[in-house]
Amino acid sequence: MINRGSRRRFLGSSAAVVGLPFFESLQRSANAQAAAAPMRFMAIYVPNGIHMPDWTPTATGTGWAMPYILAPLESLRTKIAVLSGLDHHMTAEPADPPGGHASGTASFLTMRKVNNNANDPNRTSIDQVIAAMSPGVAGRPLPSLQLGLTVTNDGGSDGAPSTSFNECVAWNKNTPLPNTTSAQTAFDRIFAGFSPTATNADAARRAALRTSVLDNVAKQTQTLQGKLNPADRIKADQYFTSIRALETRIQSLTAGGGTCAMPAKPTVANTAPYKDRVPVMFELAALALQCDVTRVMTFMVARSTSLEDFSFVTGRSSAHHNISHHQNMQTNLDALRLIGRWELEQVATFLKRIDGMIEANGKSVLDNMSVYFSSEISDGNSHKKYDMPVLLAGGLGGKLKMGGNHYMYTSMTFPRPVLGPAGGPHTGKVLIALANAFGVPITTFGDGTAQGPLTDILA
Amino acid sequence: MNRTKPHQFAVLLLGTWLFGLACTAKVTGSPGRVGGGVGGGSKADPVGSGSGGAGTGSNSDGGALPQGSGGTAVSGGGGGSASVIPAGLPPLTLDSGPVVMRRLNRVEYNNTVRDLLQTTLRPADTFPTDELSTEGFDTVGQVLDLSPLHTEQFETAAIQLVDELFALPATSPARQKVLVCTPQTGSEAVCGRQILAAFAPRAYRRPVTTAEIDDLMALVTAVNTAGNTYQDALKAGLEAVLLSPHFIFHVENDPAPTVIDAHRLDDFELATRLSYFLWSSMPDDALTAAASTKLLTQDSAEVGRQIARMLQDPKASALTDHFAAEWLTLQRLDSLAPNVTTFPAYDDALRTSAQQETGLFFQALVKDNLPLETLLLADFTIANARLATHYGLPAVAGTGFTKVNLAGTQRVGVLTQASFLMATSHPDRTSPVKRGVWVLERLLCAPPPPPPPNLNIPALVDPPAGATLRQTLEVHRSNPTCAGCHAFFDPIGLGFENYDAIGAFRTLDNGIKIDPTGTLNGVAFDGPAKLAPVLAKDPRFASCMAQQLLTYAVGRSFAAADGKAYADAVARNAIAQGKGQWRSWIETIAAAEAFQTRRGVAQ
Predict the structure, then answer these.
(1) Is residue B48 part of a domain?
(2) How far apart are the C-alpha atoms of B443 and B520, rounded to whole Å?
């Protein structure tokens, strides 16, 4: 209550409105920052794989030379770890659907096969497991936030039951959690609890009124549920669950935390060039973390099989998915190398941004959180899901070992081929380790083929 | 038949009876307006009565489709059962799974609030993108999910819509349509109940019970008692209606939810299916009135009469803007970005013109009740000045679109329209692969087999210097791993090589004369003008049309073998009854058992 009041007073009196992406105002209130720093999780997804020869460091341990694609992270070297040779294993190989992109995307954080099952009741992604079970992340205005970018694409589902399997990485049981893709909508959601003019009484009255309406709708939905066949009931259950989630959100909308000022709403249009929208969405992600609106986030830099034309970095027409089927042609490989570099530049800018946000314990937001980065496949020409590009950033307040380590789990000779060997540990073991670090005591995850955490990364 | 399980007899009998109904409806539903309007002239219909395989059959001999179509139609996927179905009748059992209760998609939400509240707001524009099913439609209940983000956006929209309504002047008809009275001090509830009792049935697309109004009134009273004004309390009641699952979902009641025998929809449910099929929106007053008097289910001609009426309404543009846009992948053009260095002639005006052309062309086919194959064989299009220049047609005056005769040009039907040619190209070049796959998927419902599991596209032998795309692809196809799939689509797609990535006609590729020959079903053709009649005669084409319409209108997949067999039978029926004209397709779909019934799901 005190937090709510103090923030509102601050906002009502002196909020300096600064346009994105120049917002630079971290207002900490003494009681908002408990001694234990907030734990936060974020997964970043890039589509169509990574050009692996320019990704994999040539030596294990620390001190390796930065490969071309990872080079933008040089100044953050001690805060990252690179994991090479990881394998999605049975999760998506042989792929189902066979196109490979949908199977890799839908299993990205779920480690569940698609198997033509649109309503898998166990397809919960690791971010949602953390959001639901980690004591450190609860009580935020948004229990989790899914951000993404719309891109040129062919609208296809790559053989999956629907386009959700290409466009979502976060799942709660059978419900795909779609991305907010408009910068304006994302802004409205992140700053929904910020009202410069409303009084506490007003806010409480509004919250109560909205809750009354939702209670009525929840009861209607419950009555309906009892009359439905099992297939229909799945949909009504989804609605009922999300109504309750919204009620919880309304209650926690004004929860205290990392207090910050509301910047000006971004003006970038949804039809603006991709290269201009990506930095704005990353900036909004940074603000959501800074303002402690949410502690669990996924970020899809594009949907799977993105056809976004990267001519702005390659100098020639380069529809991403098309050239990811490179056929070993040098022009395509050169373009993929540049695209990967551009993607990591965006990620590095974001990581540096949150590394500049210092929290009450003297460490940065990045230090106190964990960021997981990967793609739905490794080499785009083959759709293979072994030899995956996996990067971790942020040590979760010391619970995870970063230190600029490169762990290599398969035997590789350099210069390495576009597709490395199979046989490394299950990618799911990384997700289990991350969940464990967040205080979620799971030993297996997804379809059960991953057993136990990848202990190397646990402090 | 001897595989029919006992519980399916009800379906069987019902199906027979319904199809009797369909035939009756058809006869009375033909107002004989064929030939009127812009596209109705015989010039626009080069099929005539002889060249197309479809459109010539009598209504009982099954000649509407080439004989044996059921057995040969479906490439690599069953289909054998279709051949045993009596001509003109659908199979009597369905097992492709039930229709799953679906939420309004974004198009439907926007249209529905437009018609319910006379608003110009389009709240669903910011809702999450709808899931497209494997077939490319956003009306398939099975895959339309509902996340917390949806609910959050529904709530924001409900508040916004109700606030807008109350901000209208008291004299506004839009306001008066909903706020049918003014609450009087001391007896506000009288008017409050009146408003909700008038609004909820329209929003739920069915009559409501007293108990339902009581529950809404309980909310209004509670909010009012909690210290809010009566207006705010009434707003809360209206918001609850707009958030009700009965508004958000197409709710269809199963009397016995876990019994899988099909049962007929009631009049209101049928009216709702019909209006979302043709309008992507709620039923209007006339359709609701027909439902109220049970005319839709009891008068065999009424559905046909309603269809005729509804197709005259401007709202029927939804068939183009929603169905055709998804069927013909016009929405792909939204995010299209051809490389302007390679194609200096390209600009946004070309992209949007191409999108509009195909939309207007489709609209003309329906409006003028032309036969299905006109889609492929039309010797006309609807073009503006930009497209006329692009296509090398005689100049079109002014800024609008007009019907243009294509006789003697390089263009025929939808497959030479820039929308298709652009949507299936790379930014810098054509893609015979994408064009071939598009024809197989969108027109024949026969997607090629998936890539092999161990796909690793091998390093290619360099094609000869200065090679055409055809030569490059031939090198690719010479590898047996690649040939497995490419043999399906390359020979079709290469037939379009005379049309570049932005749909302009060309004779040279890389300086070499283009060879536009290809094969479909083993029949050789030379360019799209020759491909179109081959496609039109392919039995899979008509069957696929039925499959696409059924998927869209019923809201479930018909891609499994039995679904395809059902679609095949529906196609025969449509052709038998109306020479394959558009009206008969729509009427046959609306009369089909799959459209008029629902079934439960076993526990």
Answers:
(1) no
(2) 13
